[in-house]
Amino acid sequence: MKEFITRQYHSNLPKESSDLIKHAGSASQNAYLDRWGQFYENFDPQKTADTNLADTISTIQTKRQNGEIKWSTVRQYKAAIMFTLSLAYLYRENPSLYQQVVAYKKLVDIERFHPFFNAVTTPALEDNYEELNNWKSSDPLITKQLDNLAHEKNNTSSSKAKSFPDELYNILMKDTSPNMHWVRVFTYLNCRLGLRPNEWYDCELVSHDYYEVTKSQQGNPFFNGRFQDANNQPVIHFSEPNDQNSAFTYGFLEKLGVFTFNEIKDKSAPVLVVKNSKLSHGRACGPLRFIALTGFNATEVDLLKTMMGYFDRQNDELNTDGTRLAFVKHVINPMQGKLHYFWHSNDDAEIAINDVFEQKHEDWTNEKNRYLRQGKEFNRTPPVKNYPTLYSTRHQAIATAKATGCSPIEIAALFGHASVITADRHYGKRIHGWGKQQVQPVKEGVMNVLARMTDAVFNQIVSESAPGELVQAVAEQLEQDGVIKAPDSFEDAVKQIMTQYDNQPDVFNERLSHVVKTHIQPIAAKQRDAKTSVQRAPVLNNNYDNGFSPN
After folding, report:
1. In this structure, are 423 and 527 located in the same domain?
2. Which of 14, 242, 270, 492 might form a disulfide with 19, Cβ 3.0–4.6 angstroms?
3. Which of 419, 480, 485 is nearest to 452 (CA)?
4. Which residues sit opposite 206 in a β-bridge?
5. Is 291 helix (H, G, I), strand (E, B) or coil?
6. 426 in a domain, yes or no?
7. Residue whose C-alpha is closest to residue 189's, from 303, 328, 88, 273
8. What does each C-alpha distance from 521 to 121, 159, 525, 529 come to in angstroms?
9. Within this chain, do residues 212 and 265 fall inside the same structural domain, yes or no?
10. How many other CB atoms are found less than 10 A from the CB of residue 338?
11. Which keywords belong to this entry (predicted)?
12. Are residues 333 and 269 in the same domain?
């Protein structure tokens, strides 16, 4: 778990606020408290705090055992309760530190939980924390069966579509009601930009020239200090192109054909600067990302400026208190509510959603019956009705990037992921992509992703490449560095690589050494074995036509 507190309260409770607050972002922590608030509102006033806490945990267990909630939901509940218990312990044991955390992280309405913090006993805090910490998913087959049962009961967030289907998009765009105007504008723009909804709070649009000038001034903050940390220090950091690790990774993966970065040719294209969410735990590709609007025409750029102006006015009028959390609560959530109501009140939309669901359910039922007739176990997740949300626009943008040939590294740079595999695992599929990609990452953004690429991810990418491609890429890299001469054959390339690897190991950085040791060395060994076997092959007796000489 990534909550602040460690498993053993007394021995490992952090003593400094810096140790405590670094593990999760303010938005995540307030989301935990919102979830806890839902449990807290159902507490029985006639029962003790300890009993209410135990009942809450028992109810979650019962719902899971009955297949009413998915394991992912259990994990969310678990995180929320463990976080709150951590705060309760801190409130009692270190009030000064507790106040620092609340102030620094801008925890909202925390005072309403103080009666519980005062009433719950220390043994209840410790015992329930330990119990939750030991919760694990059951056998994979049972987990799948319970998840499918919850899915079929529709007690799941899976109804949120991971794309924005063309038909529903067109139905929404044709609507003319003033109440839906900003929802339509948001949908149009974010299906192309793919921001997380809360990132609209403080994004900025600058000219390409301004971006080029500012990026070269290390430490020069963007936009009148908006992108500064709590100590008024700039948070804009680029990975230097001469950083040995990221520079090598960039060049090597390009030689390997994993991706080709297309330089931005249209220098008139403005750049959208986005302050990344999910920065805690290294889940983002740096504090900021930079999206070049190379496919946006003048009308679309003006529309973007209008949307940003609307959000600024809403922030001022609704007094969002300078936080993304308040922006989401007062601006984004009402827009989401309007979109939800639209899907359930528009006849054309309801017909389209029902048609898709009925076809999927028919296919699922036929497949299930076929498995059962054959006596096989059937664990495919049943379909549910999918309703696009504001977040679905981000899925759509990523699906389009996949469909139009963007590499995983470029996708990570465009959408703010630290890992190049995040989008592939968790976001929209390429089959749902649209035909035109209207944005590009800047090179520095790609370098930021490469600088954060772990050895495990690099090795996974390399392991999926063909041996011939690896040998060629390593040879090209070493030839570029002046370590070997241009090879005249595959065998010569392997021979030169291994000769230099044995004689000059210092010229091989850690990642290149891994590639050679793991992938090139076995090829060289096979070549030696093949050559040795040919040299030692016995002279066959011509009396045996089949080439086999009995002993």
Report:
1. no
2. 14
3. 419
4. 271
5. strand
6. yes
7. 303
8. 62, 49, 6, 12
9. yes
10. 16
11. Plasmid
12. yes
Mean pLDDT over each residue of the chain, to the nearest integer: 79
Token pair for 389: 């949300």
Mean local confidence (pLDDT), 73-99: 86
Domain holding 526, by residue range, is 466-531
Question: Does residue 181 sit in the same domain as residue 325?
Answer: yes
Report the predicted TM-score, pTM, of the whole model to 2 decimal places. Answer: 0.67
The amino acid that residue 351 corresponds to is I
Sorted by sequence, the CB contacts under 8 Å of residue 264 that are 6+ apart come out as 208, 292, 294, 440, 442, 443
Percent of the chain whose pLDDT exceeds 70: 76
Check whether residue 170 and residue 48 sit in a common domain. Answer: no
The answer to whether 101 and 24 are in contact (CB under 8 A) is no
C-alpha span between 550 and 80 (Å, rounded): 75
For residues 428 and 448, the model is more confident at 448
81/205 same-domain check: no
Q: What are the residue ranges of helices labelled H in 374-454?
A: 392-403, 408-415, 422-426, 443-451
Question: pLDDT tens-digit profile of 277-292?
Answer: 866 545 566 778 889 9
In 3D space, the residue among 202, 190, 152 whose CA is nearest the CA of residue 361 turns out to be: 152
Residue 240 banded pLDDT, cuts 50, 70, 90: very low
The whole-angstrom separation of Cα 479 and Cα 270 is 38
Q: What is the DSSP string of 438-458?
A: --EE-HHHHHHHHHT--HHHH
Domain match, 86 and 125 both: yes
Q: How far apart are CA 306 and CA 312, in angstroms?
A: 10
| Residue 144: both structure tokens together | 């799948």
Give the count of domains, the chain: 3
Asked whether residue 63 is domain-assigned, the answer is: yes
How far from chain centre, in Å, is Cα 387? Answer: 21
Residue 399 confidence (pLDDT) above 60: yes
Domain finish residue from 452, 480, 495: 452
In the sheet where 440-441 sits, what is the strand order? Answer: 204-206, 271-275, 288-292, 440-441
CA distance 438 to 232: 34
Q: What share of the chain is helix, strand, coil (3-state, %, to 5)?
A: 60, 5, 35
